[in-house]
């Protein structure tokens, strides 16, 4: 191979391979060697040929190495591409695996949660079932134990003894645990001392409390309808808001107890005793309580419509604004033969009540310092009956006389009219502003004294107030208002010059009272103040007026009169 060919091959190789690693250094060396070849003819040709052969060998070896290197590079490139592909596939598989693992964990967790919840639910059901079984077993065991205990005693008991045994067990239970809100319907608690037990809210309907003793018990809001408490004893008990409807409490004794807002509707309480208790706002509609005794009772605003209280006694009590009117249109309240001793009924209603044969009197237990005070008036009227030489020789000592106008009186003759206002203790009864329309009060005795009026300061004064009360269409026949059952004292001429509420005599205050259309036949009035009263249309036949004071009073014919005594005996055209 000649030199030109070798150079051409080298150029070709250079163009094909470029710079490959450290082979560029060898090529440069070869070029330098070529350039140093001496011109032909200078050295031996054989040496050149050897050198070319050696160079060819080197070139061939170089080409062989180059081809191997190129093959290795291709393999490495292919291997690198394969590795990259494998890496991508591996990463994809890893991602898929992670996703599968996550999904697998969620599914497993959900499955485990469902399994756990199912297990919990099943456990709860088993626990509930066990608890129910246990409760049933306990109840059965208790029942069996009680049955066993009873059976051991029952074999020795007859029916009566068994009832007593059951009663004693019940009594022992309520004494130990109280009876708040307890169901005691038809329970037999009779003849027992149940003091201090709390019966608040208990259902004692139809229960038997006959003859039992209750001290300091609480019956607030209890249901005691249709119960029996005959001859029972209650002291310091609280019945506030309790219901005692249709019950039988005859001869019951209630002392120092709170009965406010309680309901005793249609209860039978004959011969009852109620002392020092609060009955305010209570309801006793249609109660049957004949022959009862109520002492120091606060019955303000209580209701007694249609009640029967015949022959009962009210003493030192107040029933202001209470309602004793009839129930509906056909059931009047009965107060026949009732005694009222120092009782107040201010603003009370008695419309259509039957109060016949009543007695109103002073309580011997009344304390003056605790009694109310009322205003009263008496008039001193002096008139000359006979004169001589301008001097009065004889005064008019007649009990019945019409007052002259003050301008007609001759002061030089000693004639005068003097009005005396004063306060006095209200000792008997107080019906101020009371509604007694259409009532029956016939044959009653109202606040009389034991000595003839006129024997002044001889005894306790019986003072009563009916001021502004209403007796329209009432039956007041044969009623004795004030004075003495021994009659009117007319022997003291000086007493006959005084009328109304004289300071030394008793007083019936009827100021501004309405008697219109009432029947007062055969009644008796003594030392009464009738100032401003209205008798229009009333019947006054055979009435004894005694020391009655008339001052601008409306008479039966609707005329206005002023005077004293019996208007029918006045020398006037107005009678």
List the helices and strands and how they pair.
Layout: H1 3-17, H2 23-35, H3 45-154, H4 159-177, E1 213-215, E2 233-235, E3 253-255, E4 273-275, E5 293-295, E6 313-315, E7 339-341, E8 343-344, E9 359-361, E10 373-382, E11 384-388, E12 391-395, E13 401-402, E14 416-425, E15 429-430, E16 445-446, E17 463-465, E18 480-481, E19 498-500, E20 507-509, E21 524-525, E22 528-529, E23 549-554, E24 560-564
Parallel strand pairs: 1-2, 2-3, 3-4, 4-5, 5-6, 6-7, 7-9, 8-15, 9-16, 16-18, 17-20, 18-21, 20-22
Antiparallel strand pairs: 10-14, 10-19, 11-12, 13-24, 23-24
Mind explaining what this structure looks like?
The chain is of the alpha/beta class and 575 residues long. Helix content is 27%, strand content 15%. It has helices at residues 3-17, 23-35, 45-154, 159-177; strands at 213-215, 233-235, 253-255, 273-275, 293-295, 313-315, 339-341, 343-344, 359-361, 373-382, 384-388, 391-395, 401-402, 416-425, 429-430, 445-446, 463-465, 480-481, 498-500, 507-509, 524-525, 528-529, 549-554, 560-564. The strands form 6 sheets. Strands 1-2-3-4-5-6-7-9-16-18-21 form an 11-stranded parallel β-sheet, with no helix packed on it. Strands 14-10-19 form a 3-stranded antiparallel β-sheet, with no helix packed on it. β11 and β12 (391-395) form a beta hairpin. The model is unreliable at 1-5, 11-27 and 33-42 (pLDDT under 50).
């Amino acid at each position: 191979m000649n030199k030109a060919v070798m150079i051409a091959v080298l150029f070709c190789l250079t163009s094909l391979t470029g710079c490959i690693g450290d082979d560029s250094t060898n090529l440069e060396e070869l070029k330098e060697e070529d350039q140093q070849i001496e011109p032909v003819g200078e050295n031996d040709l054989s040496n050149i040929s050897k050198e070319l052969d050696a160079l060819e060998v080197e070139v061939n070896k170089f080409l062989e190495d180059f081809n191997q290197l190129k093959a290795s590079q291709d393999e490495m490139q292919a291997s690198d591409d394969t590795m990259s592909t494998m890496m991508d596939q591996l990463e994809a598989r890893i991602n898929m695996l992670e996703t599968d693992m996550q999904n697998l964990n969620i599914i497993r967790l959900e499955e485990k949660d469902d399994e756990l919840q199912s297990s919990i639910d099943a456990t709860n059901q088993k626990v509930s079932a066990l608890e129910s079984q246990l409760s049933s077993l306990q109840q059965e065991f208790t029942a069996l134990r009680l049955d066993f205990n009873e059976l051991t005693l029952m074999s020795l008991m007859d029916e009566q003894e068994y009832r007593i045994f059951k009663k004693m067990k019940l009594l022992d239970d309520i004494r130990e645990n109280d009876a708040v809100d307890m169901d005691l319907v038809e329970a037999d608690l009779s003849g027992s001392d149940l003091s201090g037990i709390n019966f608040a809210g208990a259902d004692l309907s139809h229960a038997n409390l006959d003859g039992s003793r209750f001290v300091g018990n609480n019956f607030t809001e209890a249901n005691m309808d249709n119960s029996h408490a005959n001859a029972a004893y209650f002291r310091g008990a609280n019945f506030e808001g309790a219901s005692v409807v249709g019950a039988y409490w005859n001869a019951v004794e209630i002392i120092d107890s709170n009965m406010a807002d309680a309901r005793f509707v249609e209860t039978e309480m004959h011969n009852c005793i109620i002392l020092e208790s609060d009955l305010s706002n209570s309801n006793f509609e249609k109660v049957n309580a004949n022959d009862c005794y109520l002492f120091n009772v606060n019955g303000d605003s209580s209701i007694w419509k249609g009640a029967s209280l015949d022959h009962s006694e009210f003493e030192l009590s107040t029933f202001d604004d209470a309602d004793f009117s009839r129930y509906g249109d056909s059931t009047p309240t009965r107060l026949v033969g009732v005694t009222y001793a120092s009782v107040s009924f201010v603003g009370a209603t008695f419309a259509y009540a039957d109060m016949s044969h009543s007695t109103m009197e002073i309580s011997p237990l009344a304390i003056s310092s605790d009694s109310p005070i009322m205003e009263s008036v008496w008039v001193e009227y002096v008139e000359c009956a006979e004169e001589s030489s301008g001097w009065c020789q004889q005064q008019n000592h007649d009990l019945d006389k019409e007052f002259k106008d003050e301008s007609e009186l001759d002061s030089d003759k000693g004639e005068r009219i003097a009005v005396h206002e004063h306060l006095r203790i209200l000792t008997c009864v107080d019906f101020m502003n009371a509604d007694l329309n259409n009532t029956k009060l016939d044959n009653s005795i109202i606040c009389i004294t034991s000595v003839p009026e006129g024997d002044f300061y001889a005894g306790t004064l019986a003072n009563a107030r009916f001021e502004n009360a209403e007796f329209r269409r009432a039956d007041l026949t044969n009623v004795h208002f004030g004075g003495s059952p021994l009659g009117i004292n007319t022997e003291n001429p000086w007493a006959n010059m005084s009328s109304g509420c004289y300071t030394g005599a008793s007083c019936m205050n009827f100021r501004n009272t309405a008697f219109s259309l009432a029947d007062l036949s055969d009644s008796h009035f003594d030392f009464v103040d009738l100032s401003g009263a209205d008798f229009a249309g009333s019947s006054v036949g055979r009435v004894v007026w005694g020391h009655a004071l008339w001052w601008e009073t409306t008479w039966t014919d609707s005329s206005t009169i002023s005077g004293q005594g019996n208007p029918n005996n006045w020398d006037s055209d107005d009678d």
